[in-house]
């Protein structure tokens, strides 16, 4: 785009679509695997193919894009590799709901036709989130986009499965697993969400077989008693010592079961007597193995009662609960019912309550894999940032049980195992076998299960680069540089990638893992549709522009702290975008007809030029350090403060006399420095605000290429000038003091006032004398008097402020009507104190504190704090005005 004056308003919708298409068309996102540049690689946490862009995606991908664009500017060959996950259970559920609406189910279609239906759905809807990521400005290498079920990744999955099987690290066995009756599949332990639930604790009487008494057990799931095979008590519990070794009669089922002793029993829970249901509880299963107890499965895979449940067979598990409670109550076995708050396992996908049960499944032996994954973090091969997450990582891996990787669904990577129907031989192979390796029979049937989605995504950092082939991409970009992810999938995904990467590649999958927090609402609550506090990133981008939205996310991305987001904050940063635009427009309007700028001297004469160049060098270093250490909020805030406060509010204001004056040489120098500083600011801002920076950059004189091809600014030591920075701090402090006094004293903006500065030393006096014109102009003064403290008297009827080395006094005589101002302040104070009193009464009311929602109470506390600060400020002003009024009355 050609040079020229910027339009008055920034039309972000037009600019964003234009530049994204431009970048993509010119291949600026594509990585060259044969480049000699140092590599930088990020693999995108693959969103589910069913996904829609939400705030978690927006934060995660904004941070990745910042790093990718920053590293390109630093001269790295950047590969940000995108893709989507097939999301086995979630995607199957979506398509099954479509079938149900048509009066069909997957069994009626058959496996092949159902899979075809899912692929059709994927082709039509699976790219929605990819387009939304492009809307966010994600500079991914879309030419390398991958899908966890594409041909290459499927081959990698088979290779890893077979390799682990051959090494004895994958096996098929019957173990206790978590089962989802809705999804009809096994789940890994980590796929079970423990949700806090209000339920009941039922106390049930189990009579002794000899009729001499009874044991009372407590349970939250009375329907499982149908599968009880023992009652357990603690061996040191004196209450039950006489019962151990005897038998009780299981109510309803009338089955004789033993009373056993085991230290596992918690004497403080319930009655201290534990019903043992080995087929439906992980801990009870271990008790059964230890004591040789029978397993009786009374709940089937569909959540209905089995034949072992007797007369309850075929009932839904909750219907059975209601019926059995009635029968227990009728028979005198229900002693009491208590309210009980506890954690209940739910399927992470469909939210159904899971059922622990014994099942024949495929498992990965995780211990050797987990040990190597822990060692890699301990020895620094991979660093986790912030380091506090290392503890959670280690605890989880230290306690990791074998991983159930088989799923009883049809959408996913089918397990590469075949069974011979003639001799029963199991064959695990990379390619489909033609005959049985044992009996040479050809009647082979493939295992119907598919692999856990996390199995394939665990291979993501190397399978996406072409493994098991030794590709140029693999040689160039593996191990990847950093993984950016949320803490909630540290175990789901990060730990699995570490285990798989180290085992398959003999090298860690990434050098660093940056863990960011969650995006919450302004009150710190998790966003949910039920609460009505969800902020839609697409709506925010449409309303305020992508740059403002991205900058907001970065500005609040403090390490280890959740991002508290509100629409007002996004709107606030839209003003920042406009500030950049208006500053650039001001400069470009003064550059009309100038095709080039003059060279900037190594040490300009004027203080303001030396100061801004010095401050720029500091900012370049601070930004570099912040991004290298994943301090995204510091990166954003350093640039915000520098551009808005120092560059726009101070520097541009100070150079206006030169821009509009008659001294051509001074004007040319001001234009050259201001534009070159702006150019470097744009490059620094580009990673977080890619669109507005490119649009402005293209209009600057002498620019011929995209900002994406620019070089990151280098710190120029010759421009660092600490003395200029100290001097400007004094000048800015004096002007700020004058402005604050004017504001607090309610002096009209157009009114010129006299100021007196009393300096501690002659150096400060000489500085202010030399820059009196600047202070007068920026402080809107009629006159500035500068003297040495003790040698010059303080003016009468003046308001003062103190900055390091200088006392600033603004003369208010003949400027304010002290009597009227005193009345105004007293009236405003009375109003605020009344409002403050009401707020304090609320906060001291126990009834309000007990009933009001936490966010309402917090809002009231914030209001109280704000009112207190205002009252304190106005009280000071009122006291000062009263003092000036008394001074005026005394004729001073």
Automatic annotation (TrEMBL):
Q: Where in the cell is it found?
A: Cytoplasm
Superkingdom classification of source: Bacteria
> Where does the UniProt annotation place the signal sequence?
none
As one GO molecular function, the record gives:
aminoacyl-tRNA deacylase activity
Q: Which reaction does it catalyse?
A: tRNA(Val) + L-valine + ATP = L-valyl-tRNA(Val) + AMP + diphosphate
| HAMAP family (alphabetical) | Val_tRNA_synth_type1
Binding partners and assembly = Monomer.
Name recorded for this polypeptide = Valine--tRNA ligase
Name its species: Syntrophobacter fumaroxidans (strain DSM 10017 / MPOB)
């Amino acid at each position: 785009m050609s040079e020229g004056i910027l339009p008055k308003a920034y039309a972000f919708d037009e600019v964003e679509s234009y530049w994204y298409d431009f970048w993509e068309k010119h291949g600026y996102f594509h990585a060259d695997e044969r480049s000699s540049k140092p590599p930088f690689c990020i693999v995108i946490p693959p969103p589910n193919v069913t996904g829609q862009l939400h705030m978690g995606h927006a934060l995660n991908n904004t941070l990745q894009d910042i790093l990718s664009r920053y590293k390109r500017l630093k001269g790295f060959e950047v590969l940000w590799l995108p893709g989507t996950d097939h999301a086995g259970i979630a995607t199957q559920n979506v398509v099954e709901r479509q079938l149900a609406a048509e009066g069909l189910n997957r069994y009626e279609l058959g496996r092949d036709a159902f899979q075809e239906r899912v692929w059709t759905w994927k082709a039509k809807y699976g790219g929605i989130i990819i387009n939304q990521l492009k809307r966010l400005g994600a500079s991914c290498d879309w030419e390398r986009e991958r899908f966890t079920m594409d041909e290459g990744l499927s081959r990698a999955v088979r290779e890893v499965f077979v390799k682990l099987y051959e090494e004895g690290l994958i096996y098929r066995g019957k173990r206790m697993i978590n089962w989802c009756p809705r999804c009809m599949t096994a789940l890994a332990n980590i796929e079970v969400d423990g949700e806090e639930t209000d339920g009941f604790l039922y106390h049930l009487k189990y009579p002794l077989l000899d009729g001499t008494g009874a044991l009372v057990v407590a349970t939250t799931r009375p329907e499982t008693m149908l599968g009880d095979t023992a009652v357990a008590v603690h061996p040191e519990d004196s209450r039950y010592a006489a019962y151990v070794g005897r038998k009780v009669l299981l109510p309803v089922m009338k089955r004789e079961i033993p009373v056993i002793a085991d230290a596992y029993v918690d004497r403080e829970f319930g009655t201290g007597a534990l019903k043992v249901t080995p087929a439906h509880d992980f801990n009870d299963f271990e008790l059964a193995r230890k004591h040789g107890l029978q397993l009786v499965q009374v709940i089937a895979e569909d959540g209905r009662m089995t034949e072992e449940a007797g007369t309850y067979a075929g009932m839904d598990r909750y219907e059975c609960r209601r019926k059995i409670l009635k029968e227990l109550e009728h028979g005198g076995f229900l002693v009491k019912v208590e309210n009980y708050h506890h954690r209940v396992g739910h399927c992470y996908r469909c939210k159904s309550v899971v059922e622990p049960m014994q099942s024949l499944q495929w498992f990965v032996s995780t211990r050797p894999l987990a040990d190597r994954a822990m060692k890699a973090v301990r020895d620094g091969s991979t660093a986790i940032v912030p380091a506090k997450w290392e503890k959670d990582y280690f605890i989880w891996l230290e306690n990791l049980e074998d991983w159930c990787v088989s799923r009883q669904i049809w959408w996913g990577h089918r397990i590469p195992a075949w069974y011979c129907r003639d001799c029963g031989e199991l064959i695990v192979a990379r390619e489909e076998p033609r005959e049985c390796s044992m009996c040479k029979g050809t009647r082979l049937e493939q295992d119907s299960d598919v692999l856990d989605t996390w199995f394939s995504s665990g291979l993501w950092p190397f399978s996406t680069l072409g493994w098991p082939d030794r590709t140029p991409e693999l040689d160039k970009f593996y191990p990847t540089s950093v993984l950016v992810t949320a803490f909630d999938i540290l175990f789901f995904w990060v730990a699995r990638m570490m285990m798989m990467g180290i085992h398959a590649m003999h090298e860690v999958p990434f050098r660093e893992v940056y863990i960011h927090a969650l995006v919450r609402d302004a009150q710190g609550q998790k966003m949910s549709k039920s609460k009505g506090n969800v902020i839609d990133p697409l709506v925010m981008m449409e309303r305020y522009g992508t740059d403002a939205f991205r900058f907001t996310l970065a500005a609040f991305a403090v390490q280890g702290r959740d991002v508290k987001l509100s629409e007002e904050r996004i709107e606030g940063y839209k003003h920042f975008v406009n500030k950049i635009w208006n500053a650039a427009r001001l400069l470009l309007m003064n550059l009309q007809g100038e095709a080039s700028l003059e060279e900037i001297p190594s040490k300009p004469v004027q203080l303001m030029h030396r100061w801004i160049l010095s401050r720029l060098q500091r900012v370049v270093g601070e930004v570099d350090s912040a991004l290298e250490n994943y301090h995204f909020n510091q990166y954003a805030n350093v640039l915000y403060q520098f551009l808005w406060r120092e560059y726009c509010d101070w520097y541009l204001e100070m150079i206006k006399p030169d821009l509009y004056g008659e001294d051509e040489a001074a004007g040319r120098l001001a234009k050259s420095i201001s534009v070159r500083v702006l150019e470097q600011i744009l490059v620094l801002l580009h990673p977080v605000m890619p669109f507005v920076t490119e649009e402005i950059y293209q209009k600057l004189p002498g620019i011929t290429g995209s900002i994406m091809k620019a070089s990151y600014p280098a710190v120029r030591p010759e421009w660092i000038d600490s003395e200029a920075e100290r001097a400007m701090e004094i000048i800015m402090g004096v002007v700020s003091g004058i402005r604050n006094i004017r504001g607090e004293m309610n002096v009209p903006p157009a009114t010129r006032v006299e100021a007196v500065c009393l300096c501690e030393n002659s150096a400060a006096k000489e500085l202010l004398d030399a820059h009196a014109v600047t202070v007068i102009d920026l402080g809107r003064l009629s006159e500035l008097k500068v003297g040495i403290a003790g040698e010059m008297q303080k003016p009468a009827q003046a308001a003062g402020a103190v900055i390091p080395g200088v006392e600033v006094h603004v003369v208010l005589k003949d400027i304010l009507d002290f009597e009227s101002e005193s009345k105004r302040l007293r009236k405003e104070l009375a109003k605020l104190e009344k409002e403050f009193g009401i707020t304090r009464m609320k906060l001291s009311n126990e009834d309000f504190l007990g009933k009001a929602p936490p966010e309402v109470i917090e809002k009231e506390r914030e209001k109280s704090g704000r009112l207190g600060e205002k009252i304190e400020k106005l009280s000071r002003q009122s006291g000062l005005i009263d003092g000036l009024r008394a001074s005026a009355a005394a004729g001073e």
